[in-house]
Amino acid sequence: MRTVEDHRAALLALVAPLAPVTVATAQAGGLVSAAPVVARLDLPGFDNSAMDGYAVHAADLHGPLPVRLPVIADIPAGDPRALHVPRGSAARIMTGAPLPAEADAVVPVEDTDAGVSVVEIRARVAPGRHVRRRGEDVRAGEPVVATGTVLTPGALALVAAANVTSVRAHPRPRVALFSTGDELIPLGDEPAPGQIVDSNQLMLAELVRAAGAELAHAGHLPDDAEAVRALLADPPGAPDLVLTSGGVSMGAHDTVKEVLTATGTVEFVKVAMRPGMPQGAGTLGPRGIPVVTLPGNPVSSLVSFQVFVVPLLRRLAGRAGEPMLFEARAGARWSSVGGKVEYTRVEVSGGVAVPSAGQGSHMLGALAGANALAIVPASVTQVHPGDRVLCMPLLGAEAPR
């Protein structure tokens, strides 16, 4: 039986970061930069005020306080005028407004009487005080974002401020997913005896989006070898990854396993984990599209997505490392099967993890309230209250507190 780590490594060996593309800055949120982003402008682009107050000559304030100065101009942010403030005068200035020539400091309005024609200044300032100098943050021609940076809202604000309209980045992976089995019916249809509503397709589609990827196609595969073979030979949507759920175990009608085994490019294994033991992975068609076959039980499918598919999507997207794990304290006692890594659906609040009700791989009730998976090592058969447990946040759930 393969370990979780070995199976994850086998999956990651199937893919490399997607080839970089040029993306409009406004559309690049969440992508990973594939080249340095170079500023086109100095930041700030001009000397400006860091405060609402008065632009002055610091030397005019060396004598006894308070000092009264005539106010010769009012300077709002965005003022295009080339203004001068000679010695012995002041200009009322707003935060971000250009500093007039000759002035070398700004007195905050709180240190004045807020006069409009004449201002009384009650505190001294040193030259350069409350002034943002041109280029003190970024110089034109300097890189503002390094290769391999996730383009977060903050990073994009910097790129936009530097007037860079497009970036080179790894695109979002495109995923085609298929739920399988004749027993599945579409959401909204009335189940006949032996039929169940297809929940995996909706769940996996939402997980794909929550992982930062694009859904290229979502569909259903019947238990028909020819239909499965035709769809998987040329998956719709030009995907970078194909996911299937169901049909990968030891049943007589596990059609996906039957068809893909015959290609010789997909391997089916048992992984020492619970839930999610039956797994498969390989490539499809002449393009060598990576395919991951997930178990059909909804909980097994979700856990497998978290443990195996998320790292795969991160690598395709150019992201480094694995998803972040965190520690919590067990708030209850629960059992685990020895010899397998157990992924227990838990609710984490206040740093305490409590199992959700119903832990069977077919039980959906435990998913609704869970916000993390507690990872119980294969060597542990009993978790005790107060034990430290390593946890994985569940995609799309409210962040554990």
Describe the structure.
It is a single chain. With 401 residues, this protein is an alpha/beta fold. It folds into four domains: 4-17 and 172-316, MoaB/Mog-like domain (Molybdenum Cofactor Biosythetic Enzyme, Chain A, 3-Layer(aba) Sandwich); 21-43 and 136-170, Molybdopterin biosynthesis moea protein, domain 2 (Alpha-Beta Complex); 48-132, Molybdopterin biosynthesis moea protein, domain 3 (Molybdopterin biosynthesis moeA protein, domain 3, Beta Complex); 326-393, MoeA, C-terminal, domain IV (Beta-clip). It is 18% helix and 30% strand. The protein has helices at 4-12, 153-161, 200-210, 225-233, 255-263, 298-316, 365-369; strands at residues 21-24, 32-33, 37-38, 48-49, 53-56, 67-75, 90-93, 105-108, 118-121, 131-132, 143-145, 166-170, 174-180, 184-185, 196-197, 214-221, 241-245, 266-270, 273-274, 278-284, 289-294, 326-330, 334-335, 341-349, 352-355, 372-376, 382-383, 388-393. The strands form eight sheets. The protein has a six-stranded mixed sheet with strand order 16-13-17-21-20-18, with helices on both faces. The protein has a five-stranded mixed sheet with strand order 8-5-7-6-9, with no helix packed on it. It has a five-stranded mixed β-barrel with strand order 22-25-24-26-28. Helix 1 (4-12) packs across helix 6 (298-316) and helix 3 runs parallel beside helix 6 (298-316). The radius of gyration is 30 Å and the shape is elongated. 40% of the residues are buried. The mean pLDDT is 93.
Explain the layout of strands and helices.
Layout: H1 4-12, E1 21-24, E2 32-33, E3 37-38, E4 48-49, E5 53-56, E6 67-75, E7 90-93, E8 105-108, E9 118-121, E10 131-132, E11 143-145, H2 153-161, E12 166-170, E13 174-180, E14 184-185, E15 196-197, H3 200-210, E16 214-221, H4 225-233, E17 241-245, H5 255-263, E18 266-270, E19 273-274, E20 278-284, E21 289-294, H6 298-316, E22 326-330, E23 334-335, E24 341-349, E25 352-355, H7 365-369, E26 372-376, E27 382-383, E28 388-393
Parallel strand pairs: 6-7, 13-16, 13-17, 14-15, 17-21, 19-24, 22-25
Antiparallel strand pairs: 1-12, 2-12, 3-11, 4-10, 5-7, 5-8, 6-9, 18-20, 20-21, 22-28, 23-27, 24-25, 24-26, 26-28
Helix pairs in contact: 1-6, 3-6
